[in-house]
Predict the 3D structure of the following.
Amino acid sequence: MYVRAEPEWIAPRSVEDAVALRAERGDEATVLAGGTFLGILMNQRFLAPQALLALGAIEELRRIEVAGDELRLGAMVTHRSVERSPVVRERWPMLARAFSLVASPRVRNQATVGGVLADADYASDPPAALAALDARAVLRSPRGERALPIDELILGHYETSIEPDELLVAVRVPPHPRRAAYRKFRSRSVEDRPCVTVAAARGASGLRVVVGAVAATPQEFRELCDGSPAEVGARYAERIEPIADARGSAAYRRRVIAAEVRRAVESLEDVG
Amino acid sequence: MDARVSGRARYAVDAERPGMLHAAFVRSPYPHARVTSIDASAVPRDCVVLLGEDVANLGPYGCQVKDQRVLADPARHIGDVVAGVAAASPGEAVAAAALVEVEYAELPAVFDPVDAMAPEAPRVHEAAARSADEAVSIGVRPIAGSNACHRFRIRHGDVARGFAAADVVVEQTFRAASAAHAPMEPHAALAEWEGSRLTLWTGTQTPFNTRADLAGMLSIPEESIRVIAPPMGGSFGAKTFVRLEALVACLARKARRPVKAVLDRADEFLTLNRHPAVVRVRIGARRDGALTAKEVDCWADTGAYADCGPGVATKMGYAGVGPYRIPDVRVDSLAVYTNLPPNGAFRGYGAMQSVWASERTMDILARELEISPLELRRRNLLRDGDEFATGEVMRDVHFEECLQAAADAVDYEADPRGKGLCVLLKGMQTPSRAAIAVERTPVGYVIRSASCEMGQGVRRSLQLLGAQMLGCEPGQIVVPDPDTDTSPFDTRTTSSRSTYMMGRALAEAVRDLRRGDGERGFGEIRNEGGLDPDTGQGVASTHWHQGAAAASVSVDEETGRIAVERLHAAVYAGRVVNRPGAELQNEGSMLMGLGAALFEGIDFADGQVTNANLSDYNLPAASDVPRLTHELLEREGAEVHGLGETAVPPVPAAIGNALASLDLDLTELPITAERVLAAVDARAARRAGLEARR
């Protein structure tokens, strides 16, 4: 009997080839971006892919571009690149902040914008930040291209609306609101994944508050955003049904949500 | 450049032999289960499979209790190895191991050491196994018909009398979680047979103990086994006694080729961890603060196999007494089997768990007595000539200086709010033996010793000491890797004993060389003593590790997150041999203590580790490190004191006591934000209750 010890390695050099290979192989080949999440799953033998569709060699996917008012991050842009990009820091500072708080520089040098969204791991920083900024994920297939807001992209634990023939190629972010804040609450090490994250923004469409890492998907309730910061915090804490994990019980998370949402919203207020 | 920095250093993970195969293991998915059938017919023919029948005629092994077999049946924890495979590459071995079909019959399991002592608890081992002699420093005392593989007792004075004399008595139960050693280099071992002779290259702190235990298991003379111990990429107690060595030896014998095994990170969590423990302390004092009596009960969860649990429970027991003059003391400390992965030596060797309980209790007592925690300790600390609970008279005592230095570092006396202290005593392996050989070479000397290098710098210390004694440059001294064929006997590289014991043996060897032909010298040091396991009387340690720590913290009272702002340790060094090395030992110890205090705990669900990776299991990161300072107390002409572990145990209690100063009472390690928030709530409830009564 033949024993396959290593997965097949497929490494296209262009987006076109990658999209074609993705359509051809579907879910039989696992898409590999930075590997920081997939690596853990494979090392722990939760996942043993037959084939890996590795996007690392596609330069085009590593671009950070500004088109008009819009920021476009290629799927293979690393967290570290977002954090350090002068244009992101100047014009999308909340995004730079959120990415800068992920894990450690070593992880941020590897983890990618596309990877963190496609993994749909609840205990991540970027999804809530991107949701509060009204970002869209660009999915491409031989059938064409579509751009989904984060709440339509991430459907549940490790579950997205990406079709087996689609590849997440970029993230588009509209202009930054007048004020925005990102708070990451860690119950353990500074380099830990978040226990609770809050992305808050106040712009033309009013106050937006997205709470991450507390449920399968980022949690946003537009109807709860009227009122004082403490009221908004209390309402979010009451409405969300938090999960329990090693970073805190559901009851504990409720307490943290109330405090952290209040703090985030307070920080948006004009001084004086 | 240091070979560890340039990458030239070769560890056990780098060991290679021509034609070697790679091992992978078939592990039980059940916490307690009999193997009813194994079918390896799907494994490719060019792989070698090790099954129960291959090892049926081999003896049991285990460093303190002979309760382990090369392959487990029944499997006693999730991850227990029931079969082994060797293949041409690590990937093929893993794939082949997955093709071995095993059927199990589940047995009832137990996961908590207190539950495991209940009369109706499932028995992890049917009968008490034979005690091993080689690596035990105390008579092993299993409790028949129970899961206790050892109980240690101290009976000193009469606690009934002592508590009757007390004005205030406090009692509290504390818990400490299991933890991972998490060395950068995982366990790795390579075995090769030439005829009836076995050679092992293995990352180990215990080359001679490993040789003896394997010889017993294989029924061959110890001299037929050669253990070579390359430097380790960290160990912290993880690489002690037989771990992978028995498996690779048996696979290699069957394969007739060298076989190597390297664990991955997830498997590390199934191999050896720190003892989770429950420690109950009851202490009484007179109104003036004089301690009158103390009771300490420990349940050290040693997991599926005893390993060195008896030794850990013993040290946990007497370290829990603390460095105090207490007329009446009772200690009962159990090493208890459960169906968790085995727990073993971990930097601190059980002292951290009981020091956490004992020193937290001192602050609770201080609050009851309305005496400053610093003052309460001062009034009771052991001084030169005092008798410890083991009956031994203490000499070269420096607890008070250590404690004062720690207190001063955080300005404790000016304002103790948000600050906490801890002082500890920790023993060193007693009895033990260390031997060393010095040989002249054309350009300097070779020092042969079985002291193992694991990053603690023992090689450098021997070079520095040797250079001083021999009058040459450290660079003229070569210290080869420990090798049981050529290195003289050493008990093992544990319990912070190497610089102290090997250092003195080296002085003997140099004297011997001078007395003789100047070409070679041999030195041996023994420290005699030991405790009676039934009374705890005798000599616990010929040499005491003494230290103290202070912490200052702030608390986010809405989330329970604490910030450790300041951490200081003061450790009695006697005389420093290798200053940069000694400082790094202190810093490393404090960081490990910080992890134990705040983050580190292995989570289990029905015996399954649920955080067996370094993302879910948190170690302190660089940015978690507070303002961290320490000092090494020295005395002119004093003995060299071991430093490798002293600053680990006091850190959690110092942080816990800093919270206690804010009226936040924590009893469980790690001190998670959620536990702190619960303490904030409890304080509010207490205050509301007081208010209501007024």
About this structure: The mean pLDDT of chain A is 95. The first helix of chain A runs from residue 15 to 25.
